[in-house]
Amino acid sequence: MPSPAALEKSLQTLLNERATRANLAYFRQQAQVDYRAVDVADGAAFSALIQDIYHRYGRLDGVIHGAGLIADKLLIDKLPASFAQVFDTKADSAFTLMRELRPDSLKLMVFFSSVAGRYGSRGQSDYAAANEVVNRLAWQMHWRCPQTRVVSINWGPWDTAGMASEGVKRQFRERGIIPISQQAGCEFFTKNCSMARSVKSKSLLEKGPGQRSIRSSCRKCDQNLRPKARCRLFNRYLSSSPTAK
Questions:
Q1: For 27-80, what is each residue's pLDDT tens digit?
Q2: Is residue 42 part of a domain?
Q3: CA 151-221-44 angle, 5° bins
Q4: pLDDT band at residue 202 using 50, 70 and 90 as cut-offs
Q5: How many domains does the chain have?
Q6: What mean pLDDT value characterizes the chain?
Q7: Based on the domain organization, do 2 and 123 belong to the same domain?
Q8: pLDDT-based confidence at 200, cuts 50/70/90?
Q9: d(C-alpha 61, C-alpha 58), whole Å
């Protein structure tokens, strides 16, 4: 018999698929929709998809990068394969976009990052590292694509959407941060996509009932940053860990 966790995961998958179908049906009432599914962690397949879009339509005007997964554990308890999967899903797919997107037609590039990358989050060293890499890539794209509006939104936990578990939401509430409502998140997203070109990454946290705290910070991009750097970091940690002796 499946465990409660497995049943919950299966249920969430079904609900997500239902929501996707409903969204596609709504969008198809307004415009032509070409829906594709691909594993963005598969760099070759993801690159081929992007190239096919250019071949079929001649351009890409806007991209929203929201890839990510979590597998929360303290760093000392993480396995290298698990660390790599969490890190690569977000960071490597962002590098693929950097390689394949053509600046001449790109008007908008939005990265969905996380406050975990800015402020850290217990059990999320891999996820936090990946999100900070995405923040820096956004800076690099900003300088490479001067005509493109590039935004990296460092989301806090969402109330009725997103990946944050109830346990994570509880930890944030104990720190005085309430989950982002769907309305507030959508308004923040729309506002920051429509603003003039900026050099800032944006963080959204909800602090207290109805009181919003938005922090903006600027950081120079590390031009030499590469995805495989996480291997050196992780191996260095393992070599110094008491459990590796």
A1: 999 999 999 999 998 999 999 999 999 999 999 999 999 999 888 889 899 999
A2: no
A3: 75
A4: low
A5: 2
A6: 79
A7: no
A8: low
A9: 10
Cβ-Cβ contacts under 8 Å for 54 (sequence gap 6 or more): 60, 102
The string of pLDDT tens digits covering residues 69-104 is 888 889 899 999 999 999 999 999 999 999 999 999
User: Quick check: 81 and 68 in contact, CB under 8 A?
Assistant: no
Residues 54 and 135 in one domain: yes
Asked if 3 and 66 sit in the same domain, the reply is no
Which CATH number does the domain housing residue 203 bear?
3.40.50.720
Cβ neighbours for 146, distance < 8 A, ≥ 6 positions apart: none
Q: Is residue 65 part of a domain?
A: yes
pLDDT at 112: 93
Q: Is the pTM of this model over 0.90?
A: no
Strands (E), the chain: 62-65, 108-114, 149-155, 177-178, 201-207, 212-217
Q: Which domain holds residue 175?
A: 47-244
Q: Which two tokens stand for residue 29?
A: 């009432």
> What torsion do the CA atoms of 95, 98, 100, 104 make, to the nearest 10 degrees?
170
Look at residue 40 and tell me if it is in a domain: no
Tell me, yes or no, whether 121 and 52 share the same domain: yes
Mean pLDDT across 5-24:
86
